[in-house]
């Protein structure tokens, strides 16, 4: 089936070429980082995880898109998601690939990455994250590809796929939970030390992943003959709406606990990112952009008239995606390091090479997504023809 | 003789299976008994710890810091972003934020307090390290690092509530004033921190910082030995530890 990715319109090749260019630029700067060290980034002694790990954290959420279509379709026999499951699964594959690449580019000694396997350490959450991420990648590529191949041949999928599909549902929950545990179990990092971290991850994941999926469906409808149908998009839109509401509710719960208890070390990170602390305002504009975008998206999504208008829904989903990118892909990780254990505030700004490497990984992710979607759409179009 | 592709593949498969279970077998059933003989002159202790008396530190004195950083080949990048430090001074309020208030005893406001790795009895950095590159030595409790195993994920830095760890954001070697051939230099991309001078203890020497301190502000010893100087010091003075509420059981005791 992969050969379907090798023929396409001029526009398709233009897009693929653009992505390869992005990958190339990112790769050149990654070589530079390998040579110089992670000092090429804006990370410092105090802020030791930043843009890379934040992208990883955010993209684990995007990978959730799969479960939000797989669960209704396979467990509740929700037929409207029949055409969209493959898109969810392949989006999960591309997202998890990006997650793994962001971990690799963040390692100081990437050549030693296999030490994770040579010296397995179950006490480390990173060990479990490696297992759940690779497992989720494996499940989605195997399920998606097998089901698609059977559709192409007009035969029912083999029976062994069903247990894998059922397994993929709790597995999707596990990738968020385990990723949240990376942060939530660290003594002395008050911003992350909250039992609601994993539920928060799940809430925002079920908003950002399906929001991106809706946008991708719109793009496919515009540029191909593939249409998942209005029912599927509106059902996803309702999922996004609930998930954004729940995410906002969870964040407000954090804010209540932190500010009503008035424990300084719990308040300081929130003050830093929303108001600014001791003359440091690096994240303040971003966090208020997040608040504004979430507010806009909630207004557009809760109101049924605006939600049912595809154009407005597109705007709302973009707002959801960007706002949660700010929250997870920027705010959550960096703020956890501020103030430092020695009460210092070290601002963080990503450097040019860091941004280009990040964009390179995103380009790689979209490249994988494009190839997988091209195969899927070609097969679906072939069946319909 | 291998007669068929089938037999050949069987053998390859079995060999790979054998190799793949080896780390698991080692992890579950490996023996940790020491295979190396110890030097007779080494300082043996069961639970190393340090008492720090900041009141004895003359203002502006950096003797302990310089001694430590010199023997351990700690580079000086001259910028705080990439900075590497094993022992250094911080104002009292930064070391003990929960204890600072407006009416501190004279001389404590902003007093320089030496900070270093606490060699916690319950170290979070060891718990979070995905490769056991950071580990706790069973025999004496020192939290140590294998610089050759560290993958540079920096989970330990996130896990350390004391800010004791530094990342080699770039090649440190050109920034070491004078390389001490007795101790390894590090490569870029690994984390490092104070090792309680385990390499000196093995030779029967006290930690470099303790030896360098003319004021005897640092007392090092074995907590399990009731006659040790550190036990006498802890009996004679009221001491506090950094962030004891976190349950890490730090082994650096501050005399106040």
Q: What features would you describe in this structure?
A:
- With 385 residues, chain A is mainly alpha-helical.
- Chain A contains 14 helices and no strands.
- In chain A, helix 1 (10-36) packs antiparallel against helix 14, helix 2 packs across helix 8 (197-223) and helix 8 (197-223) packs antiparallel against helix 13.
- Chain B has a single domain, classed as Alpha-Beta Plaits (2-Layer Sandwich), CATH 3.30.70.
- Chain B contains 8 helices and 10 strands.
- In chain B, the strands form 4 sheets. A 4-stranded mixed β-sheet of chain B has the order 8-1-10-9, covered by helices on one side. Chain B has a two-stranded antiparallel ribbon with strand order 2-3.
- Chain B is elongated and about 85 Å long.
- Chain B starts with a helix and ends with a strand.
- In chain B, 39% of the residues are buried.
- Classes of the chains: A mainly alpha (385), B alpha+beta (256).
- Chains A and B meet through helix 5 and helix 6 of A and helix 1, helix 3, helix 4, helix 5 and strand 6 of B.
Secondary-structure blueprint of this entry?
The complex is a heterodimer of chains A (385) and B (256).
Chain A (H helix, E strand, L loop, with lengths): L9 H27 L14 H12 L2 H11 L9 H22 L8 H4 L6 H28 L8 H24 L12 H27 L6 H32 L2 H11 L9 H19 L1 H4 L2 H26 L16 H33 L1
Helix pairs in contact in A: 1-14, 2-4, 2-8, 2-13, 3-4, 3-7, 3-8, 4-6, 4-14, 6-7, 6-14, 7-8, 8-9, 8-13, 9-11, 11-13
Chain B lengths: L4 H25 L18 E5 L10 H9 L15 E5 H4 L16 E5 L7 H5 L5 E3 L6 E3 L9 H5 L6 E2 L23 E2 L5 H4 L6 H5 L5 E5 L6 H8 L2 E2 L11 E4 L1
Parallel strand pairs in B: 1-10
Antiparallel strand pairs in B: 1-8, 2-3, 4-5, 6-7, 9-10
Structure keywords:
heterodimer; A: mainly alpha; Formate dehydrogenase/DMSO reductase fold; B: 256 residues; alpha+beta; Alpha-Beta Plaits; 4-stranded mixed beta sheet; 10 strands; 14% strand; elongated
